[in-house]
Amino acid sequence: MIPASFDYVRAESVDEAIGLLSEHGDDAKLLAGGHSLLPLMKLRLAQPAMLIDIGHLRELSYVKEEKGYVCVGALTRHHDLANSLVARASAPVLAHVAGQIGDPQVRHRGTIGGSIAHGDPASDLPAALLALGGSLVVQGPNGIREIDANDFFLSFFEVALTPEEVLIEVRVPRSEGQWGFEKLTKRAMDWAIVGALAVRTSNGVGVALINMGPVPMHARAVEAALASGANASDAAQHAAEGTEPSADFNGSVAYRRHVAKVLVGRALKTAGV
Amino acid sequence: MSILGNRVVRREDPKFLTVGGTYVADLDLPGSVYLTFVRSSMAHAKLLSVDTSGAKAMPGVVAVYTNDDLGIARMPTIMGMTNEAMTQPMLASGTVRYVGEPIVAIVAESREIAADALEAVVVEYEPLTVVIDPAEARKDNDLLFPDAGTNTTFTLDFGGDEALFDDCEVVVELTLINQRVAPCPMEGRSAAAHMTKDGRLEFNSATQAPHGVRDGLAGFLGLEPDKVHVVTPDVGGGFGAKASVYPEDIVVGWCAVHLGRPVRWTETRSESMLGLGHGRAQLQHVRMGGTRGGVISAYRIDVLQDCGAYPAFGAVLPFMTRVMTSGPYKIPKAEFGSVSVVTNSTPTTAYRGAGRPEATAAIERTMDVFAREIEMDPAELRRRNLIGKDEFPYTTPTETVYDVGDYHQALELALEVAGYDELRAKQARRRASGDPIQIGIGLSCYVEITNGLPDGEFGAVEVRPDGKIIVRTGTSPHGQGHVTAWSMLVAEQMGVPIEDIEVIYGDTDVVPRGAGTMGSRSLQIGGAAVNQAAVDVVEKAKDLAADLFEADREDIVLDKSNASFHVIGTPAVSKSWGELAKAAVAKDGNPLFAEVDLASPGPTFPFGTHISVVEVDVETGKVTLLRHIAVDDAGRILNPLLAEGQVHGGIAQGVAQALLEEVVYDPDGNPLTSTFADYSFISAAELPSFETRFTETPTPINALGAKGIGESGTIGSTPALHNAVCDAVAHLGVRHVDMPTTPIRVWNAINDAAPHHDAKNTTKKGGR
Ligand SMILES: Cc1cc2nc3c(=O)[nH]c(=O)nc-3n(C[C@H](O)[C@H](O)[C@H](O)COP(=O)(O)OP(=O)(O)OC[C@H]3O[C@@H](n4cnc5c(N)ncnc54)[C@H](O)[C@@H]3O)c2cc1C
């Protein structure tokens, strides 16, 4: 419960954070809300030699609408996203999902950037990002690039950020369409045993799954079935295809596969599919 | 007007709600060093070597000890009843027997240094066969203590009638898991000790029993008890698990004596999940027999108690289960047997209810199964078998004598508050509709025992010359509200405002004796002792007043409306408490003071009925608690606010056991639930507002008519919720779901029942 010793620097800008990351390489870690990183450090499962604190960078805390996109600064707290009028109007599913994360304390500290950069397949916001067809804006020593959400989650807790890059913004296409979000938990504050999200977008129905494999993922087979005209309950039967859920005392593989179908079915129903 | 029975707000709360409490870890002890423990990462292994040289060489490390350095005796057996070859050393010696067992003690200048030093200790293990399943342990194939020649440490056998069920038309049989849970007080174990200038050991402890800690320390460290001074600052809960002394406590005291510096130790949550005793952990085999008309005539329960690696209090708790074998029912023949075995897991100890919730869970779950078997409403089956209110004192087949009760009244009131018939109608409609969200209704009638190991208690009341009243009590509150409750008792007897009363506890120098707070004993014995002391002090004051007024002793009256004494008929001439206190000192130098060591008149038996209403999502197995109705009878209620507080907390914990909580080990004995992310400690979001009612059937055994209320919430609620979940899916062919009724368990049960159900009841399945 006491982390190994580390150095701490408070970066005053994104550029400074990138400079520090370039200087310290793998030994350094960005600290945003700390609600994924600090628990790992307290258990000594992570022992970074240096923390570069970007948690207070106000310039990265915003929700705005631009050219048909809702743009969320990477340091926007879950609570602020959940209560953002812009998000509620133009990407209500994103606001809703943010409001379901953990408990109030977690939502007041945790950030969307941390949640996405951490790459935890049990996290909720990545599913929303995938279902909405969003993208990530990242900045590194060589400038800014944009990564499609589909190309971002590489493998278990591994994302397409280089060690010198900072995630600065999360963008999703404006989406006022109907949506459904289903999260099966034991307690309100828990991570999903399984979660499912469906949203009607201009490109069809986006469906994503939480905790059904090593990475946050689309329910591709469901999306395809819907695209080829299947009805919601038939499409939902494909929810477990292509997934690789793990087993633990909260659920066997068979259980998770079953629940994925149930939850996708319900999410589609709520989304009016 | 009497203050008793009123919702007097807690005198304790302004502090907690403003500046906050002061816990052991908050104490300012300049020059402190910090103790921490290297704990076993293996469930069962020989210690081949323990290399502490790296830790010793680290700057800031003050001392590193293994068991051989300490030379302290092993923990004793439990009340002489457990196996002598199975006692625990202070630090592991030769063999480790559970993950989390302390192996090395490290003292450092800071907690941080100590945490780093832990990692520098190299322990070489040689794995031994791990025994984690108590049923395996019982077979004695692999022994935790080869010298003992067995894994069994304590047995009970009550009855053995081979013809027990011979006359029964119907016999049901059930195997139940009363799973291992973690008590999870907000504050873990914590101690801070130092030697005072006059050569005494001052020991601050987060305990429920300061005098027990004093005697334990004195015994282990070879000190006279009066050379040990134990103080409890605010204590953040205990639930029974902090009622006993742990090896770590003794090591803290030893280090303070040997290092001559203040030594402090506060466990982390992850340590607490492995080191603080666990609760429950019974495997139960139950049989119940009776007539098709719903008369239960025979019952037998066999318990396999998991003691964890070293028999602690949990090993003997089947004794309390035995006491409550037949519950609130008039069952002519009832038997009990138990075997307590050691396994490679955290030792088990008392946890809120301590043996009684296990008894209630067994019989209440079985009542529902029996009711289903004879197709009778579970409320009706209970109604037909409860002991009648005219049958007290009632002696059960396992020779427990219940003092007094009106069990039917509690049942009927609970049914009325719940709107039982309407609930059943709603359930029927929901079933017929084939909705994936089904409704379950669960009942639990309970009776339990408080102050079950009947200790007496100390209480004293002193009147100061300024009129202030000092109350000393041997109980040791840690959330219960004794300051408020004892003030009310004293105010009632003496007529003084509660603001003028100071209640002192948790300091062995100021309170000479005390058993502490556990087993729901405090009001019925500790409160009664304080009450008696107040009565006695009034009598002494009357003697003094008679002298001062030169009046007849019999003519002295205490006017409680203005806290003064006068001679009957002449209220204008009066003496205040302060004046009498001064008179007492003037007379013989002694304060106006009364001290009582109230011997226990025996235990009491609170009772009640709880009803849970749940929704179960039959497609995912997820259970949602909609309502929980609790009718509890703890005799006369001193302060409904405090009593409700006890009931609320108890329900939350009891519901949590039925719904969520379980300590899980993998087959290698690795704990899988040592953080609150994995151990499903319940939160407010999972709980509805509770509907609580009290009936009051005063006990004749104490002057207050009071029974205990601290554990009844836990005892009554677990089976009510458990029954509700099983009831919600009963129509799908599910007979039983083990606790905790997590989504996966409920879903598995539905799934396992499905084929059988399909064959038998295709029509009923309807739209699903
Ligand atoms: C009790 C509890 C319950 C929770 N429940 C849920 C839940 O139900 N659902 C859910 O989705 N999440 C849950 N979380 C996780 C929570 O949402 C975290 O806040 C989030 O996952 C991480 O965000 P953070 O800002 O705290 O990141 P941090 O912990 O600060 O960082 C996480 C990782 O991301 C990196 N990082 C952070 N920001 C950036 C950036 N801008 N650019 C590049 N890298 C960055 C860090 O270096 C680190 O490796 C829970 C957490 C807790 C403690």
CATH homology superfamily name of the largest domain in chain B: Aldehyde oxidase/xanthine dehydrogenase, molybdopterin binding domain
**Which secondary-structure class do the elements of chain A indicate?**
alpha+beta
Helix percentage range of chain B? 25-40%
* Ligands, deduplicated: flavin-adenine dinucleotide
Give the overall form of chain B. Answer: globular
Give the topology string of chain A: H per helix, E per strand: EHEHEEEHHHHHHEEEEEEEEEHHH
Oligomerization state: heterodimer
So what's the overall shape of chain A? globular
> What is the total tally of β strands of chain B?
28
Largest interface: pair, residues per side: A-B, 26 and 27 residues
**Widest sheet: strand ordering of chain B:** 3-5-1-12-9-10-11
Helix content of chain A: 25-40%
**Number of β-strand runs of chain A:** 14
- Helix/strand/pairing category of chain B: alpha+beta
Report, as a whole number of angstroms, the end-to-end distance of chain A: 47 Å
Number of folding domains of chain A? 3
Which spans of chain A have pLDDT < 50 for at least 5 consecutive residues?
A: none
Reading side by side through the largest sheet of chain A, how are the strands ordered? 4-5-10-6-7
Largest sheet of chain A: 5 strands, antiparallel
Report on this structure.
The complex is a heterodimer of chains A (273) and B (768). Helices cover 32% and strands 25% of the residues of chain A. By secondary structure, chain A is of the alpha+beta class. Chain A has three domains: 47 residues, 2-Layer Sandwich (Uridine Diphospho-n-acetylenolpyruvylglucosamine Reductase, domain 2); 116 residues, Uridine Diphospho-n-acetylenolpyruvylglucosamine Reductase, domain 3; 92 residues, CO dehydrogenase flavoprotein, C-terminal domain (Enolase-like, domain 1, 2-Layer Sandwich), CATH 3.30.390. In chain A, the strands form four sheets. In chain A, strands 4-5-10-6-7 form a five-stranded antiparallel sheet. Chain A is globular and about 55 Å long. Chain B is α+β, with helices and mostly antiparallel strands and 768 residues long. Chain B is built from 20 helices and 28 strands. In chain B, strand 26 and strand 27 form a beta hairpin. Chain B is globular and about 90 Å long. The chains are: A alpha+beta (273), B alpha+beta (768). At the A-B interface, helix 11 of A face helix 4, helix 8 and helix 20 of B. The structure holds flavin-adenine dinucleotide. The site of flavin-adenine dinucleotide has 30 residues of chain A, from strand 2, helix 2, helix 6, helix 7 and strand 10.
